[in-house]
What we know:
- Chain A has nine helices and ten strands.
- By secondary structure, chain A is α/β, with parallel strands linked by helices.
- In chain A, α3 runs antiparallel to α4, α5 runs parallel beside α6 (about 190-205) and α6 (about 190-205) runs parallel beside α8 (about 245-270).
- Chain B has four domains: about 1-80 and about 570-585, no CATH class; about 80-205 and about 545-565, 3-Layer(aba) Sandwich (Rossmann fold), CATH 3.40.50.410; about 215-300 and about 535-540, Immunoglobulin-like, CATH 2.60.40; about 305-470, Rossmann fold (3-Layer(aba) Sandwich), CATH 3.40.50.
- Chain B starts with a strand and ends in a 10-residue tail after the last helix.
Amino acid sequence: MLPEPFTPQFLSQLETLRLRTRKEFLGSHTGNYSSPRRGTSLEFADYRRYAPGDDLRYLDWGIYARTDRLYIKLFREEVDLFAYIFVDASASMAFPSPKQKFLPASHIATAFSYVVLANHDHVKLHLLGNSFTHNASPFYRGRRRITDCIKFITSSIPEGPLELATALAEHLRSLRRPGKAILISDFLMPAASYQQGLNVLRGFNLDIAVIQVLTRQEVDPPFSDGALRIVDSETNAEIGFQWDAGARQDYQAKLAQHNSQIRSFCHQSGIHYSLYVTDRELDDFIFATLPAIRLFK
Amino acid sequence: MEFLNPAALYGLLALPLLLIPYLIRRKPKRVIFSSLLLFTEPVKRAGGRPLGRLRLPLIFFLQLLLLTLLILALGEPVFSLRASNIAIVLDNSASMQTLENQQTRFALAQEKARELLADLGVAGKVDLYLTAPRLEKVRGATLEPAEAAGVLAALTPYDLADTPIDYQSVLSQMAKERKYDRVFLITDHPAAGQTDTLRVITVGQPKDNFAVSSFSISHASLVGPRLEATAEVANFSTKDERIRVALRGGGAVIANREMVVAAGKTAQTTFAGLPAYPYYEVEIEARDALPVDNRRFAVPPVAQNLRILGVSPRPQALNSLRSIAGVSLDLIAPQEYDKIDRSGYGLEIFHYAAPPVLPGNPALFVLPPDDNPLVDLEKPVSRPAVSSWREPHPLTRYINFALFRPAFSRPLRPRIAGESIIESPAGPLVFAAERRGLRQLVLGFDIFPYLGRENLPVSVFTLNLLEWFFHGSGAEGRATGAPLTFSYTQQGNFLLTPKGDKITLKPGVNNFPATYFQGIYQVDRGAQRELFAVNLKNNNESDLRQPTPIELRDVSSGGGRVSALFSIWPYLLLISLFLLLVEWFVNPRPLRTRSG
């Protein structure tokens, strides 16, 4: 039984989508994505001089007629895609409650997984939590494995702090094939921290997409005016704060600046970026926003 | 603007309590947030001082205003319209002599009254009333304010107890009948509630006080010549007090005694072996607020040898009284009663006889005939059982009523007011009355002959009644306000009051009701003088701790031509409701903290 947003209608809409990649990867099987290798697809790639032993079916007879030389037509190889979906499972993803933040994030991950599985590609889910815990699923292939994806992702509880770069490096250690990396997180961490993490992904020659998930409570904190002791959900650090209309404006300005920095860094690094506030409809985000940033074909 | 319920304004003192929830709320709320990343700068506005600066939101000031308005509304504020016809009722009871910072409460009341007169304006009319000895207008005619001020200055308080008056109904009725715009009662009693027309102005504060609550002179025994004085001192305060009691005779101190009186209690002391003086005075040395109750007066019993006139058709039976030491007895037949001078007798005993009118001396009636002026007699009963008796009472002291069985009796049916002392199932056997200061006792059985130890219960009763008559001659003194009755005054006799006023008495029986001051009242009969001790005998006047409040219910008095007050509290309530609505809009959303 799939969770609520994954109705048959929603799934059939997802099946119409296909992840777009900006890079060419070496796949394991024939698929729909371009490979740097020459192969047998219908897409022409290049010519080369005929050498004995080449398949005569690929001789370009037109060139031979004009130039009296033998050339072999080369075609692109189309391979399947390996997608790695990283989901932030630190304690901050449970604010104000797992249902309000982590669950929407896992729904996005599930939607991406289904898009990949529906295209007979490979998907692997990674939960980024405590950096010393390696929590990753096996590769799934075939749309029926969507239930395994859901089971894997819903079995986890967001808790503990997160060092993004360390956690990603730990997960990437076992990664053998490059592919598409999708990182889903609230990115409520210092710029250096997320930049370091994204650079780690870039270093593995992955095509990266970033989905920032925030709740409405994080966009507009519902505190009453007055003195507050604000506790960090991950580190339990406390800070005294006088909350009022001015502080609310300051906070929102800082958040906007923070998000802008992430967007700017992603743009400069060739990373797809999108912000999802969890009170928004999921299908609207999947079918309108993500195609708009050219994450889907 | 005035307040009909000014006590409610004490609620304003509680307003600072409103700060408490804000001070508590000021303690930082602990809330969990996903990350502190965007809260990196602790806001300096929280303050450099350890406790920070108290920042009060707008809602606090709205609440403060709301509470203030509600308390003011509870105080029932009114705008006073200028009254032109008023009555000022001054409490002139003894407690108004209490000192409040060198001034008596009555003087304060006079000041308040003068202020009211000053507010009245030249065209105003005023009636002045005093409450003691009864609620009465001071002058018959309505006064101009200036004239009233002159009359007011001449008024003094009396040594009288408060007159029991239902001020609500009496003053309302007065306002209605005489069309007063306002009636002001100036007293030392607090008021519970006010009305449009009736206003109570309270002067004075609760105070500790000490008083001589009782003082009497008596003989140490029925026949002995020795006198003794008994004084009782009451402590109307919250702490035990050592009090010095001085006994004076003939103006000089003849004895002193120091005693400790517990808080809220009384203590008694007895001075024995007193020399003979015309009257005695006891005074306590206490620096308290009310001096008038620190003194009491008493006169000794009139004579040691009780002179008795016996009137009986069977005088032999009364002869037995001569066996009692100190009793001097003259026996006559009933038909001789009108022919003799009865002025020297302390008691007249009518044995199976009765005069047509009550005698001018204390009298004992033993089984009087049917045509007596006091009682009807029921059918005879032999050996009646005693079913009840007054206790404690001087007449029933030391009597064993199990043995008290007269051989013959006729139960009584009184025709005048009095009290039944001993009762049988068929009716009273002993009936006591007091008229014009003279005691009368009627017996439904014969106590004579006096048999001494042979019939002890009846003999004890006989001695009790002699002592009752003996002490009934004025030794305990009278209460202020109670009338004095003098018999057989002649031309030229006069009465001298404690204030030194000389009042000429008419020949015959005289009644002097104006005993408004305590002290010794002296009837001068030429060579003979008769003294009466009059004292303030009311502990309620002496107890200044918690005066009884005057209840004024908020009912329409119907007095005056128009209401002199314009109530504004309903408007305050309306404003409060409006503020409540504003608060509803201003109040921020409730704080939500992280759950789960």
